């Protein structure tokens, strides 16, 4: 158990809908990262937050947005969903959000299926 | 930019066989290197890491050595078990970047 929690574990929805994925980081970690794992794209970085502020952006679509709240939990919002958004979405956390030596600890993921 | 190339597999082995998964990287800076493992139906778990050249990461019988001269971080285990069946991901994190860059993953199946 990494200490990172994600809810829900599974999500099934229809095209055009909007969903919210939630992540709670490990106790003491200030940085949260979101990754998408799909069969065709592999594991891709979406976005990072540090202590409530956006720090880095990766291959995140404009239909997707995220935020980190004062209690440090984070939410990833996916809107106008398309079939291709079906994937496993991981949240990870680290202490200070510094690149390089820091280890990122991953949650169990949310599996999204868009029908 | 940063990238990781790893042996894609799938790899099928018998129990007690030797496992090697090749991983090479390209990085603009001086990265830290990681191996993560994903067991069936689960999330990613950190297996081992190395933060500087010639460092050897080890855990659960797995080892990998950071080779700067060959830009490699190959994963090895001397005697695999059925419980080692999983997908293994090589990844790097650069000090000038915040994200992890992952390889495509290698599926390993160990038969009894």
Would you kindly provide a written description of the structure presented here, covering whatever features stand out?
The complex is a heterodimer of chains A (115) and B (112). By secondary structure, chain A is mostly beta strands. Chain A has no helices and eleven strands. In chain A, the strands form two sheets. In chain A, strands 2, 4, 5, 6, 9, 10 and 11 form a seven-stranded mixed beta sheet that branches. A four-stranded antiparallel beta sheet of chain A has the order 1-3-8-7, with no helix packed on it. In chain A, strand 4 and strand 5 form a beta hairpin. The radius of gyration of chain A is 13 Å and the shape is globular. Chain B has 112 residues and is an all-beta fold. Chain B is 0% helix and 50% strand. In chain B, strands 2, 5, 6, 10, 11 and 12 form a six-stranded mixed beta sheet that branches. In chain B, strands 3-9-8-7 form a four-stranded antiparallel beta sheet, with no helix packed on it. A two-stranded antiparallel sheet of chain B has the order 1-4. In chain B, strand 5 and strand 6 form a beta hairpin. Chain B is globular and about 45 Å long. The N and C termini of chain B lie far apart (41 Å). At the A-B interface, strand 4, strand 5 and strand 10 of A face strand 5, strand 6 and strand 11 of B.
Radius of gyration of chain B: 13 Å
Q: Largest interface: which pair?
A: A-B, 27 and 27 residues
Sheet with the most strands, sense and barrel status of chain B: 6 strands, mixed
- Which parts of chain A are unreliable, with pLDDT below 50 for 5 consecutive residues or more? none
Number of helices of chain A: 0
Helix % of chain B is under 10%
- Strands of chain B, total number: 12
Q: In angstroms, what is the radius of gyration of chain A?
A: 13 Å
Overall morphology of chain B: globular
Q: Would you count the extended β strands of chain A for me?
A: 11
Average of the residue pLDDT scores of chain A: 93
| Unreliable parts of chain B | none
Distance between the termini of chain B: 41 Å
Number of helices of chain B: 0
Briefly note the structural class of the backbone of chain B.
mainly beta
């Amino acid at each position: 158990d990494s200490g990172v929690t994600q809810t829900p574990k599974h999500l099934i929805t229809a095209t055009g809908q909007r969903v919210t994925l939630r992540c709670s980081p490990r106790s003491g970690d200030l940085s949260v990262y979101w990754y998408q794992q799909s069969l065709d794209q592999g594991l891709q970085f979406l976005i990072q937050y540090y202590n409530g502020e956006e720090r880095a952006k990766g291959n995140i679509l404009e239909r997707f947005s995220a935020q980190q709240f004062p209690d440090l939990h984070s939410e990833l919002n996916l809107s106008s969903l398309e079939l291709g958004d079906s994937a496993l979405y991981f949240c990870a956390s680290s202490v200070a959000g510094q690149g390089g030596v820091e280890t990122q600890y991953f949650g169990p993921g949310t599996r999204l299926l868009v029908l | 930019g940063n990238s990781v190339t790893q042996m894609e597999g799938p790899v099928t082995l018998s129990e007690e066989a030797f496992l090697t998964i090749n991983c090479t990287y390209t990085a603009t800076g001086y990265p830290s290197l990681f191996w993560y493992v994903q067991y069936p139906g689960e999330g990613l778990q950190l297996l081992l890491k190395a933060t500087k050249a010639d460092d050897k990461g080890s855990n659960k019988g797995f080892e990998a050595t950071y080779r700067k001269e060959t830009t490699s971080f190959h994963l090895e285990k001397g005697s695999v078990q059925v419980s080692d069946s999983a997908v293994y991901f090589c990844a790097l994190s650069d000090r000038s970047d915040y994200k992890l860059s992952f390889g495509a993953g290698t599926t390993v199946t160990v038969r009894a």
